Amino acid sequence: MIIGNKMKKTAIYPGSFDPITKGHLDVLHKASKMFDRIIIAVLKNDAKKGLLPTEDRVALIKDALKEMNLDNVEVDSFDGLTIEYAKQVGSDILIRGLRAVSDFEYEMQLSQTNNSLAPNITTVFLITKPKYNFISSSTVKEIAKYGGDISKFVPESVVKYFNNI
Question: Would you please indicate which residues are annotated as catalytic (active-site) residues?
Answer without folding.
Answer: 24, 48, 99, 137
